[in-house]
Design a protein that fits this description.
4 helices; three-stranded antiparallel β-sheet; 112 residues; binds zinc ion; alpha+beta; single chain
Length: 112
């Protein structure tokens, strides 16, 4: 499993099978205000920001949905087979996605 940050450079390797590919699969993630991923995060943020004057502005902005877009290298074969990519964890605050990927993809990502 790897953590992918929004805007980071990804290797030209299929995330699913490890084959070299130039194809990118666009993945659109939208947070839900009551979503399970946001639950513990909301609790932490509320506790953290209460002493500050910016509280209400912060809470308002967190009440809206947050969108992340990720272009994940996916070869033609896997693009047909893998319809939906389901990340293990999405951190909309940090723009970070934890995803199960092929060992080759992980290696290339870590080597830069
Ligand atoms: Zn593939």
């Amino acid at each position: 499993m790897v953590s992918i940050r929004g805007g980071s450079q990804l290797p030209a390797i299929c995330h699913h099978c490890g084959a070299a590919t130039e194809r990118l699969k666009k993945i659109h993630l939208v947070s839900e205000a009551q979503g399970t991923a946001m639950g513990p995060l909301m609790g932490r943020l509320i506790g953290y920001f209460i002493p500050f004057l910016g509280l209400f502005h912060r809470l308002e902005s967190h009440g809206k949905s947050v969108e992340l877009q990720l272009k994940l290298p996916t070869c033609a074969r896997c693009a047909r087979r893998v319809r939906d990519v389901a990340p293990r964890y999405i951190d909309f605050e940090e723009q970070r996605i934890d995803l199960i990927v092929h060992a080759e993809f992980k290696k290339a990502l870590e080597d830069g």
